[in-house]
Amino acid sequence: MKIEPLGGSLGAHVTGVDLRACSVDLCQQLRAEVLAYKVLQISGSVLSPDQLLKVAEGFGRPLVHPVVPHLEGHPGVIEIRNFGKAHTLNEHWHSDVSFEPEPPDFTFLHAHRVPQYGGDTLFANQVQAFEELSVGMKAALGRLRAVHSGAGLARIMGKSEVPEVVHPVVRQHPETGEKALYVCRAFSQRFEDMTGPESAPLLEYLFAWAVRPHVTIRVNWRPGDLVIWDNRSVQHYAVHDHGDMERVLLRVTTAGSRPIGESH
Ligand code: SIN
Questions:
Q1: Backbone CA torsion sign across 64, 252, 129, 220
Q2: Measuring from atom 7 of ligand 1, which residue has the nearest CA?
Q3: Cα-based torsion angle of the residue sequence 84, 255, 11, 94 in order, rounded to the nearest 10 degrees
Q4: Per the structure, how many domains does the chain have?
Q5: pTM for the complete prediction?
Q6: Extended strands (E) in the chain
Q7: I want to staple 108 with a disulfide (CB 3.0 to 4.6 A). Which of 61, 172, 199, 252 is the partner?
């Protein structure tokens, strides 16, 4: 297995592994690398939905998405397709399904068909974003919780309302102990016990702070790539700059736990 960093802040590119025969040992090794690099782009294995699920099972229990329908015969696998710029579901900074009480730990995104150009995915390191804040801001944020909602996504998918949830603004990683910012433009609505307008100035500041270029990487997809990321420490953004060109990716997420903060 060869591992090369993808950027100065996060991410690594992995070659020399065959994911079609993902042993327990290999999954454990990849899991340790995801915790260290936060995002892994693993090239070279075209996977069926069952093989993709097998890799994910090496990390945790695959989840059924609360709003987006799954691939027929494969609960746990959703297909991300290009429905045109007007219908993109993920062209915004987000941590997957943060509007659930127990959002997924890991996401597995596998490229079946990729456009000739464009359609990259951006990732931002939320541990570094937190670490670079002032001591005073870190202390203030440590006392705050934010309301997350998936209502917008549910509406697009023609589903009834999903309940709001409240999570700490600074999330402590249960495995690495690292602290990360845990608010995102797509789903974080306001701070707990505050109105939207009261919350907006600081939330807007944090949304921008969290995705400054030097804490990001850009993954350029090749067919057969599997990208695995840790939703507890990154946000991501799908860039829709590929017009009507086909882009088909399969996605699995694995079970997580209720985010914990410093004072909760
Ligand atoms: C996602 O938001 O989970 C998928 C990102 C992508 O389509 O690149």
A1: negative
A2: 238
A3: 40
A4: 1
A5: 0.95
A6: 2-5, 12-15, 39-42, 78-80, 106-113, 121-125, 145-148, 165-168, 170-172, 179-181, 188-191, 216-219, 226-230, 234-238, 248-254
A7: 252
Q: What are phi and psi of 106, to 5 degrees?
A: -120, 150
Asked if residue 259 is part of any domain, the answer here is no
Whether 239 maps to a domain, the answer reads yes
Whose alpha carbon is nearest atom 8 of ligand 1? 238
For residue 89, the ligand 1 atom closest to its alpha carbon is 2
| Residue 93, domain extent | 2-253
Mean pLDDT, range 60-64, rounded to an integer? 95
pLDDT digits 0-9 by tens, 168-179: 999 999 999 999
Cβ atoms of 162 and 66 within 8 Å: the answer is yes
Residues framing ligand 1 (Cβ under 6 A): 80, 90, 96, 107, 109, 121, 236, 238, 249, 251
Condensed to tens digits (0 to 9), the pLDDT of residues 138-182 reads: 999 999 999 999 888 878 777 777 789 999 999 999 999 999 999
The lowest-confidence range among 7-16, 70-79, 214-223 is 70-79
Atom of ligand 1 nearest to the CA of 119: 8
Rounded distance between C-alpha atoms, residue 125 and residue 214, angstroms: 9
Cβ atoms of 139 and 133 closer than 8 Å? no
How many Cα atoms within 13 Å fall on the side-chain side of residue 66? Answer: 21
Q: What is the distance between the alpha carbons of residues 159 and 36, in angstroms, rounded to a whole number?
A: 37
Domain CATH code at residue 134: 3.60.130.10
